[in-house]
């Protein structure tokens, strides 16, 4: 067995390793494989069949890579609505019975400071706008400016409506295709702006796309620099980027295929890229660190090193990826195509990065062997998995848990306090850049027709109830005007507009929508962009607590299965929740209260975007679970060697602390680059996720969790007998349970006592 494990492989370790790579036969190869669990055997198989693995991944990347460039054009710019809501039903009715006069219609604003609609120059621009709209097949019809409705009293502002002749996502594309042509029809005297819901989403998506691209370009060199410092070698630093690129290309291609079946938000691509980068780095860091240590201990026995790495770090990566997928799957409970497709995009990227981490990465490591440390930085020592500095830090926590744990806990709790006054809402027009047409047109309509005019509500009601509905609308507080009664094609329905007196994004406008619905006959439906936002906001609010509960429950269950310790799993989930709450508390101070507006370059809306508590919570929790699994699986590994709770704590921090800190540094750098972007939503996302990762790594994973384990002592790893019998036997140690690895431990750990025999089948 000594020869098989590389402990006494003779003077030529390279020769031994090469024999394993060539497939090995006989007792040595059999002995090497016999000590591996399923993940170790998968890693060894990937090394021995690396040509097959390389070829398969090359084929996947090549095939899906040909589709990836087409994904961007196939992705949807819409989907920000609640499926099955009253406003969506009203929109469908308006498209079907009223020739597309729904919220998806384009509103083209023609305005002048000196000329009026009666002037020939102004009228020519209006006619040119109408012709341009009619030239697009997606426009079902054109409604000219109507006095008292879409023509201002002074005649200086006219709105030409392009009726929706296609689905909402196609109308967003129509806005993208037409808005520049329409704006070019104006001149210094007469201005033309395309606004409305479709135009706003078009400008919003383009601004976000540009910001995300800038952020990503900025994040790559920063990421590479951090990886070089973390790994200490050029070759090792390049491996996470390999995983990222492979995962992203594959996910993008698959997203395109998904668009052939259903609408997928353009944001899905952005989030897929971000998570491919973040998780690819996380997983590669954990695996490569472990491989380098195992390779040094095994005297360059590549097969043994890969097997040990995948049995330990590979298994942790698998459970980490599984927790990320589970956390994000809870977002599918939100009845919105945009949110579901964004979650789908992230989940696809996670699946491919995870698959690459478990197959492609070990194959590459097996091929590289000792060359993984090529082009090492001169001041960096490689091949040591256990960090003496983090071991010393853990010892300090063991000696003085309250001195370190109390300030961290107090800081996190204080950051959670602002959540008591957290307000949410759907994005206002201020999330669109100041000089974009949709924002300029929006402001022009407000100036000409009133503050609530851009959010005019569309009421659809059976003809028999029309008179009662109009009367109820006029009596509703917060409704400034009621106008534009029109009959449907078959005469069975009537549609009219109810114009709020307040800005559509204000709390007063929301109250007006609720009061109008309460006052109207039960047969009436209230639609319009403002109503769609209100319904989506309500759906998000209703789903927030269930999503959080599902994420917490499934996260606890997965940690329980992986770690086989209820107390440890509870600590992991509770501290994750605490760090997430602190991040949102900080976000409340920044974005709702408007602190650091000048520094970060944004306009406060007076609230957090409504999707943040649901979507960002799932994202933050998923990332935090990464670090939880890395730290606690390492502690579990030491526990399986028979070490005491204190020894397992110190060993877990010593072996995973450097990885957690390096991964967090990369993630913080990546996320904070988004904080430098122009539009508010990606800025909001970057700040929340960046703060969450920073707090989680520094105050939770490397401080609060070890302190909690220290205070719990042996009770942390206790499991009731009945639960022990129910749980699958999952182990993070390599080889026979209780066997020591070949790594030389820090003083005090060289002769750890043998573990009790762990019953059951090893996983």
What do you see in this structure?
- This protein is an alpha+beta fold and 763 residues long.
- It has three domains: 35-74 and 232-385, Up-down Bundle (Multidrug efflux transporter AcrB transmembrane fold), CATH 1.20.1640.10; 86-201 and 434-531, 2-Layer Sandwich (Alpha-Beta Plaits), CATH 3.30.70; 386-421 and 538-740, Multidrug efflux transporter AcrB transmembrane domain (Multidrug efflux transporter AcrB transmembrane fold), CATH 1.20.1640.
- The protein is 63% helix and 7% strand.
- The protein contains 25 helices and ten strands.
- Strands 2-3-1-4 form a four-stranded antiparallel sheet, sandwiched between helices. A four-stranded antiparallel sheet has the order 7-8-6-9, sandwiched between helices.
- A hairpin with a 5-residue loop joins β7 (479-487) and β8 (493-500).
- The longest helix has 35 residues, at 197-231.
How many separate structural domains?
3
Provide the CATH topology of the largest domain: Multidrug efflux transporter AcrB transmembrane fold
CATH superfamily of the largest domain: Multidrug efflux transporter AcrB transmembrane domain
What is the helix fraction of residues, given as a range?
55-70%
Percent in strands: 5-15%
Order of neighbouring strands in the sheet with most strands = 2-3-1-4
The assigned structural class equals alpha+beta
Spatial shape: elongated
Number of strands: 10
The CATH architecture category of the largest domain equals Up-down Bundle
Mean of residue pLDDT values = 84
